[in-house]
Amino acid sequence: MNLPMSSLQGQQLAAPPSPPPPGAVATGPHAPRTQPTREAAADWRRFRQHFCLPDGRVVDDVNDFRTHSEGQGYSMLAAVYFDDREWFETCWSWTRQHLQVRPDDRLLAWWWRPDNPGRIPGSGRVADSNNASDADVFVAWALLRAADKWQRPDWRQEALAIIHDLRSLQLQRLNSGLLILLPAREGFHHGEQITVNLSYWVFPAFKDFAQVDQHPELWDELTHNGLRLIQKARFGPDQLPPDWLRLSADAMSPCPTHPVCFSYDAIRVPLYLAWFRDRRLERQLFHPFASLGRHMHQPDRRPDPTARVWLDGAPADPAHPLLPGMRDVLHLADARATGALPAVGRLEPGAGYYSSILQILVHLAINPAPLFPASP
């Protein structure tokens, strides 16, 4: 199940769009709202009630109430979106104190384990000090957006420090010349091969980073390469990207040390593509994800929708049912593929932290305008 790396050479994507003229405002049914919808705000309140502790920690109730750096970053960005400064400050304070503890950089330890699992504040410790690049991206992006929204230049400086370390430590150029994002500082080099996670390419964040970092060309190149990889790294009957992708000098393939499937990680690939809103994104880029969403509801093909699609054509795994948040991401991909108006279901806390945060992020992707300060 290998694809040649040469298929990436010379691939051209459409040029970025020219910026709109000053004061231009989108009109019609797709025009952005400057405020979250009432339904989105209600979902955020429900998420806070079930997964955000008073001390500033977001808990993963399905995994022993542990805390991940990704959850902190996701909820910080959501707090900016929903104008929830109280949660933003509380969450960033906890994150800075408990996760930004690596001695040689400003990146975050990715996993914190509580001493007493549950929905109560308490003591605990870092269980793994390795970082997760996508979480670092979200925390830095949230700090940038919060600095603009609430006029806090100190948060901007903290964001720039994380962005600097991401660029210096996590962007790596392969021998082929391809610039990629390492998933973490440790554990993803395998001799001449490197493992990447395409769901760590948070395209709308990279666009913001290029506006503030000293090397915007690298973020632009990383974006371009991510789009090329997503375009080419398609496997199996459904032509989907794997959760983890192994790159070598001459080939790419699903990583053999991880389940060979499109699942909990790769579901974020169409989410961040839909969020990006760039003319380089042709509708056909969304078709495999949109088709998957439609086919999952055809009883003669896949009667029991599941969260894992095996890329070797193996039968669906009923032990992993499709989460409501994953369903909403696929519906969003379908809307982007067809030009229809997207929609999101009501948040279902009983489905767990990850499904719930996906539903929150779909709200942000559908209408990102509240993340940005209104023009005076």
Structure description:
- By secondary structure, the chain is of the alpha+beta class.
- It has one domain (36-371): Glycosyltransferase (Alpha/alpha barrel).
- It has eleven helices and twelve strands.
- The strands form four sheets. The protein has a five-stranded antiparallel sheet, with no helix packed on it.
- Helix 1 (38-51) runs antiparallel to helix 11 and helix 2 packs parallel to helix 4.
- The longest helix is centred in the middle third of the chain and has 18 residues, at 133-150.
- It is globular, with a radius of gyration of 20 Å.
- Residues 12-29 have low confidence and may be disordered.
Strand order of the largest sheet: 1-10-9-8-7
Number of domains: 1
CATH architecture: Alpha/alpha barrel
CATH fold title: Glycosyltransferase
The total count of helices amounts to 11
Q: Outline the low-pLDDT stretches.
A: 12-29
Termini, distance in Å?
A: 54 Å
Q: Percent helix among the residues? A: 40-55%
Strand and helix order: EHEHHEEHHEEEEHHEEEHHEHH
CATH top level class name: Mainly Alpha
Class from helix and strand fractions: alpha+beta
- Main sheet: strands, sense, barrel: 5 strands, antiparallel
Radius of gyration: 20 Å
Q: Quick check: average pLDDT?
A: 89
User: Tally of extended strands?
Assistant: 12
The outline comes out as globular
- In terms of DSSP E residues, the strand content is 5-15%
